[in-house]
Amino acid sequence: MILANNAANGEELVADAHLLPVAAVGQKSGDAIKSYLFSNPNSTVTILFEGTKVGIEPSPVVAAFSSRGPNSITPEILKPDMIAPGVNILAGWSGAVGPTGLATDTRRVEFNIISGTSMSCPHVSGLAGLLKAAHPNWSPAAIRSALMTTAYTEYKNKQKMQDIATGKASTPFDHGAGHVDPVSALNPGLVYDLTVEDYLGFLCALKYNEFQIRSLARRSFSCDASKEYRVTDLNYPSFAVNFDTIMGGSSAVKYTRTLTNVGSPGTYKVSISPETPGVKISVEPQTLSFIQANEKKSYTVTFTGSSQPSNTFSFARLEWSNGKYTLGSPIAISWT
């Protein structure tokens, strides 16, 4: 059987297990094969095994089935956070079921090849365990920050990471902060940390009532009526900015972030690239100096957007660097 991709899967080849012998091909090859079959009543086929190929470029790419943004629940929080290996992962397999998982599959194997979020999540979980072992005092938020701010979005040739579904460059709505880099994550220099109180304040910003918060936090907590809670102040390592096209004209949104020094003393300078059409991005202050471990410094990013058509999107990247460490945060801007 020849299994050809449709437009949704493009040129991505996933090594799924089948009950029949199968050759999987991308959409372009599939269309060519179908055209040949329909045009030639005496069509023939030859399958040649060319062996395992390594060094395939570009690699990695964003999987066609990978979850995409924007965040439909809380648009001010960019999703996904990051991407990790999750396509054609070879690993041990339970003997309880066959490689296809079907009841009719009586075969039993010790190894199988699986793709999906169920494969990328264990990779990230393992990396989180690695970082926790190296830094026992780091919080889950600090670990996530280290993984996100050190992730990469370009290949070694400086080309943007590709989305296999479209064959074009991927965006933060596809790859989030980028592809995880375990070695860099071990020593990020700075982290965006969060406490339980920060998350409770986030729930207040979302207008959760006392009963809803207690059901999540397993503790009593009341939002301070005298305090202004803002979703945009959650100390997240990324930025999702939303402008309302109905309002028209120019509007500004402020995001406040706090960095904690987990590296050596140094002065960090901020940069933003590329320039974003329709939006002016300013950061205050533009330099942050740290002289001791666990020192915290805050900054504010102001996004001033002009009127744009609905469903317009723009992307950028904010970086803090001291020459030794560079930590990046993706920026996704939407007009809805």
Average pLDDT:
94
Q: Which parts are unreliable, with pLDDT below 50 for 5 consecutive residues or more?
A: none
* H-E order: EEHEEHHEEHHEHHEEEEEEEE
| Number of extended strands | 15
Strand portion: 25-35%
Distance between the termini: 45 Å
The largest β sheet comes out as: 5 strands, mixed
Rg is: 24 Å
Structure description:
By secondary structure, this protein is an alpha+beta fold. Helix content is 20%, strand content 25%. The chain has helices spanning 27-39, 117-134, 140-149, 172-175, 182-185, 196-205, 210-217, and strands at residues 2-4, 23-25, 89-92, 111-114, 162-163, 168-169, 190-191, 239-243, 251-261, 266-273, 279-284, 287-290, 296-305, 312-321, 326-335. It has a five-stranded mixed beta sheet, with helices on one face. Helix 2 packs across helix 3. The longest helix is centred in the middle third of the chain and has 18 residues, at 117-134. The two termini are 45 Å apart.
List the topology elements.
Elements: E1 2-4, E2 23-25, H1 27-39, E3 89-92, E4 111-114, H2 117-134, H3 140-149, E5 162-163, E6 168-169, H4 172-175, H5 182-185, E7 190-191, H6 196-205, H7 210-217, E8 239-243, E9 251-261, E10 266-273, E11 279-284, E12 287-290, E13 296-305, E14 312-321, E15 326-335
Parallel strand pairs: 1-2, 8-15
Antiparallel strand pairs: 3-4, 5-6, 7-9, 9-13, 10-12, 10-14, 11-13, 14-15
What would the keywords be for this entry?
alpha+beta; 20% helix; 336 residues; four-stranded antiparallel β-sheet
